[in-house]
Amino acid sequence: MNWDDTTDTGADAERLVGAVADREDQAVEAALRPKDLGEFIGQEKVREQLDLVLRAARARGATADHVLLSGAPGLGKTTLSMIIAAEMGAPIRITSGPAIQHAGDLAAILSSLQEGEVLFLDEIHRMSRPAEEMLYMAMEDFRVDVIVGKGPGATAIPLELPPFTLVGATTRAGLLPPPLRDRFGFTAHMEFYEPRELERVVHRSAHLLDVAIEPAGAAEIAGRSRGTPRIANRLLRRVRDYAQVKADGRITREIAHAALAVYEVDERGLDRLDRAVLEALLKLFGGGPVGLSTLAVAVGEERETVEEVAEPFLVREGLLARTPRGRVATPAAWAHLGLTAPRGPAGGTGQQDLFGT
Ligand code: ADP
After folding, report:
1. Is residue 76 in contact with ligand 1, taking CB distance under 6 Å?
2. Average pLDDT over residues 42-50
3. What does the alpha-carbon distance between residue 142 and residue 163 come to, in Å, rounded to a whole number?
4. pLDDT higher than 90, residue 7
């Protein structure tokens, strides 16, 4: 899976169907976050397992084990960390890997935690190496060694920490060094959501935002949300705007359909860029194989934008395949754009790749 590639791509954050939170998301998401496990929609297995972990810890009167949450942006990792704190009746501190560049930054946070506090460390795979090593000891022994001084005179002063629960979140569990991964008592992998689950997310958010919505309207939004609650909530807000300006505010199927046509998000959740890539692949290169650079030139985008922003979702949707010979469209891609594939292996024309991959 390649969805994790989009995490750091600025271009993705600017898209209506990007999974990374933009400024507006950050402002409104707090109001839409489920507050306990009962309100959290979908992810049945993760919920069931986490419920057991938390209940057992509560029954023992102990701090919950460290939890690692892996999964694409926008699937509810931050929300779950807040729920863990709420279910444990504990305060929560939120920080992220990129914010901790020096071991001293981490020592400062750890030494100010209260007993039982939840420390949410987003993008844990992006922490610096020295901080990571300090974290090993903190997680295992609730202790850190603070280094005082420099050079030969430097001394390590051990510092006891109160027991705490680390909730680490990563889009790339595979990138975590095994010693770090092994120190989590519980690891949960978050999956993309089914359209039915996203419909429930949309209904719930519409209710909280005081927006009237019909089931067919919610289904229309859910189907275009790329399996991601954050995108579902964002599309809902855009459709709400349209419904207010163009109609009486009520979201019907027709309104959702018309609104999302204005924003160029199609029935499968593809946006303008996704469709441009597919269209070039099909119309200019007969479905491929074609090199990435050639494809990027054809759509007038940077190679990285095509590779990191458009392709992961197209691959996930089974519309495009990355092969050693280049990018190839699948039969589903032809069907999606309403085109007929030429005959021949993999729909390809043997078109020459001018730029290499
Ligand atoms: P992540 O930390 O994985 O990027 P967040 O926890 O910030 O994702 O979730 C993004 C938004 O999606 C939140 O505002 C939240 O309201 C919504 N959301 C995520 N998961 C769920 C869920 N299971 N049920 C309802 N809403 C959800």
Report:
1. yes
2. 95
3. 6
4. no
Catalytic residues: 77-78, 122, 171, 230
What CATH fold (topology level) applies to the domain 34-189?
Rossmann fold (3.40.50)
Cα 203 to Cα 26, 32, 132, 219, 344, distances in angstroms: 20, 11, 41, 9, 46
Mean pLDDT of 39-59: 96
What's the rounded Cα separation, in Å, for the pair 145 and 351?
Answer: 61
Beta strand pairing status for 67-70 and 165-170?
A: parallel
Ligand 1 atom closest to the Cα of residue 25 is 14
Distance CA 200, CA 76 (A): 14
Q: Could you tell me if the CB of 18 is within 6 A of ligand 1?
A: no
pLDDT in tens, 310-355: 999 999 999 999 999 999 999 999 999 999 888 765 544 444 444 4
DSSP collapsed to 3 states, 265-279: CCCCCCCHHHHHHHH
**pLDDT above 70 (res 215):** yes
Q: How many CB atoms lie within 10 A of CB 305?
A: 19
Ligand 1 nearest-atom number relative to CA 33: 16
Query: Does 130 sit behind a cis peptide bond, omega within 30 degrees of 0 on the bond before it?
Result: no
**Tokens standing for residue 200:** 């429930």
Mean pLDDT of 306-313: 92
Q: Stretch 283-302: mean pLDDT, rounded?
A: 94
Compute the C-alpha angle 193/195/196, nearest 5°: 100
How far is it, in rounded angstroms, from Cα 222 to Cα 233?
9
- Which residues are paired to 166 by β-bridges? 119
Q: Where are the domains of the chain?
A: 34-189, 195-262, 272-355
CATH topology of domain 195-262: Helicase, Ruva Protein; domain 3 (1.10.8)
Q: How far is the CA of 325 from the centre of ligand 1 (A)?
A: 38
SS3 231: helix
Fold assignment, 272-355: Arc Repressor Mutant, subunit A (1.10.10)
**pTM of the predicted structure, to 2 decimals:** 0.88
